[in-house]
């Protein structure tokens, strides 16, 4: 009877246990799962991706980069793990960049980055091909967020866009 009750309990709770964690889309095998808990999953590996680097400045709160994002081109998004089921699924539209000040210098050079960091404009962006490392996802502000470290930046063209407002980047 004990074995039956144990098997029955496992049968009833197993679907609930598997639905608690995130379910990921197919993605590049270059990114391997390194650690997992209910809210955070870290992948180790490197990927070269094309897209737009966006830097946000808020001189009232701090000098330098307030937030930095990488917006991968649509075809590049398929290379990244996206939470498609389980705990708080959300499609990937942008990747938060860790250490935005360092990436700003890598993107624009020290002198230009210093001028941007003073906050004359709220946003600066450029097309780039990046080498992304240590991609991850977590829950912040009750919402799924994606983040990564950038190891290298190669500008894709010479155009820089400066703006005082930008749609689609508000919130955490």
Topology:
Elements: H1 2-20, E1 23-24, E2 32-36, E3 41-44, E4 46-57, E5 65-72, H2 74-77, E6 83-85, E7 95-97, H3 100-108, H4 110-117, E8 123-140, E9 143-163
Parallel strand pairs: 7-9
Antiparallel strand pairs: 1-6, 2-3, 3-8, 4-5, 4-8, 5-7, 8-9
Helix pairs in contact: 3-4
Describe this structure in words.
With 172 residues, this protein is α+β, with helices and mostly antiparallel strands. It has one domain (29-163). It is built from four helices and nine strands; from the N terminus they run αβββββαββααββ. It has a five-stranded mixed barrel. Strands 1-6 form a two-stranded antiparallel sheet. A hairpin with a 4-residue loop joins β2 (32-36) and β3 (41-44). α3 (100-108) crosses α4. The protein is globular.
Largest sheet: 5 strands, mixed, barrel
Task: Give the H and E element order.
Answer: HEEEEEHEEHHEE
Number of helices: 4
Oligomer: single chain
Low-confidence stretches: 4-18
How much of the polypeptide forms β-strand, as a percent range?
35-45%
Mean pLDDT: 85
Distance between the termini: 51 Å
Shape: globular
Helix content: 10-25%
Tell me the number of strands.
9
Rg estimate, integer Å: 19 Å
The side-by-side strand order for the widest beta sheet comes to: 4-5-7-9-8
Total number of domains: 1
What is the SS-derived class? alpha+beta
């Amino acid at each position: 009877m004990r074995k039956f009750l144990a098997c029955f309990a496992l049968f009833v709770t197993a679907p609930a246990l598997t639905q608690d964690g995130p379910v990921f889309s197919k993605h590049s095998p270059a990114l391997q799962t390194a650690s997992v808990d209910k809210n955070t999953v870290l992948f180790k590996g490197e990927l070269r991706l094309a897209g737009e680097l966006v830097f946000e400045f808020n001189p009232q709160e701090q000098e330098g980069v307030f937030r930095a994002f990488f917006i991968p081109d649509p075809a590049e998004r398929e290379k990244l793990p996206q939470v498609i089921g389980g705990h708080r699924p959300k499609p990937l539209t942008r990747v938060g960049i860790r250490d935005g000040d360092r990436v700003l210098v890598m993107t624009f050079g020290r002198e230009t980055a210093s001028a941007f960091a003073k906050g004359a404009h709220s946003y600066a962006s450029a097309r780039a091909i990046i080498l992304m490392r240590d991609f991850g996802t977590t829950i912040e502000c009750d919402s799924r967020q994606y983040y990564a470290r950038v190891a290298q930046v190669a500008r894709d063209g010479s155009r820089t866009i400066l703006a005082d407002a930008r749609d689609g980047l508000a919130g955490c």
